[in-house]
Amino acid sequence: MKKSEAISLFYPGLAGSATYRIPSMITTSRGTIIAGIDARISNSLDNPNKINTAIRRSRDNGMTWDDVQELVSYPGEGRDGAAAIDTALLEDEVTGTIWMLFSHTPGGIGLRSSEIGTGFSENAERLLFDSSGSAYRLLPNGHVANSQGEMTPFTVDEEGNVHVDGGTKGNIFLKKGIDPDETLLEARTSFLQIIKSDDDGLTWSRPIELNPAVKEAWMAFIGAGPGRGIQIQRGDYKGRLVFPIYFSNHHGKMSCAVIFSDDHGKSWRRGASPNDGRTFIGQTMMAETLSAEGADLTESQVIELPDGGLRVYMRNHAGLHRTAVAMSMDGGETWSDTKYDQVLLDPVCQSSVITYPDMGDGKTRVLFANPADPNKRRNGTIRLSEDGGSTWKYAKEVDAYTFSYSCLTVLANGDIALLYESDFSETKEMTIKFTTFTLDGLASS
């Protein structure tokens, strides 16, 4: 099988970051590869941690790459730092806008410690809290009102710094109790945020808040797929932008869903979860009240099939060590009952799945990559289906050793690229490798 030699695209020490994790990747309509990543500044741990969102770009099918470009950075240091974690990318092929989805958490907060709530008022104003727990509302002009709607002397700038009486008094994104000048903090929960680029990834907007539109008051954690989203190409929902997400409830149990936009990103909605109405061990589940052990459906990726249906591939905790799948015929608003693909071995890890462009020969090609081992994150494998994922005729081992999260894309020249997590044998810190394949080579494996 023809395969390029893997290069280390993100590695420990690059651009001042201790390590990198969680790859995302797309090929834009201009042929540019955008590779997204978590820059984990001090160490490789998930949040709570100082984690920035970054990218690298290539305009020659991965032969050369631009320097690391930092897109989002919140204040704080080390395990006390705030995070922008777990990215997903998609391009609106109608407008040319590129969207990047991620999860933000304030200092000291991660998946398991996120509190219930959206972090916003009914009027979509960010909630702030003082040391006694009293609530305030951050208005669009940066001024702060108390719970009775009365204006206070506080203002908050775009970086989260709190200003009062001519001085700076803390930052709303910091860990509680870490700043002696602390006055107001944002809610101690997770925030789904999105940024956009209208110039092929050269420049990006400030974070746009999605919690008021897509997060429910009963949810705690909320995060992106991660990896990539899609734009529906056919049928009643043609043009819809779709991003996989997942979230937790008050039991700490997790469910996935998709968010979608029918107006090119001006507004977003969330569909139901495959866990809503799902039958699991003889019980009917709902994402809001889910408590059954093993029913979690978490990180996911979605593809569109020729009939306009969507299929989601889901990391899960059912103990079967197989990737879970479900179908939607209404653009991700509802889902069929969850099943398990017995070919897709899974050690409980994120996977990547995309469709290959139609070649006019009646075949629906689907590419799937993950650590194909039931027990450990190793034996990285890329699979090819020519019947829409019903069977997986071809498979090729990419990396026999450590292989964790990954992301696939099809390049402008028709080759297939894979961005994946590996590690250095001595340090055990992640390095993110980039490699390419030809379709003919994969189909002969």
Automatic annotation (TrEMBL):
Keyword annotations from UniProtKB, A to Z: Glycosidase, Hydrolase
Domain (Sialidase) ranges: 189-416
CDD domains xrefs: Sialidase_non-viral
Pfam families registered for this protein in UniProt: BNR_2
Keyword Transcription regulation assigned: no
Reactions accelerated catalytically: Hydrolysis of alpha-(2->3)-, alpha-(2->6)-, alpha-(2->8)- glycosidic linkages of terminal sialic acid residues in oligosaccharides, glycoproteins, glycolipids, colominic acid and synthetic substrates
MF term (GO), any: exo-alpha-sialidase activity
InterPro entries recorded: Sialidase, Sialidase_fam, Sialidase_sf, Trans_sialidase_dom3
EC number: 3.2.1.18
Family of this protein: Belongs to the glycosyl hydrolase 33 family.
Entry protein name: exo-alpha-sialidase
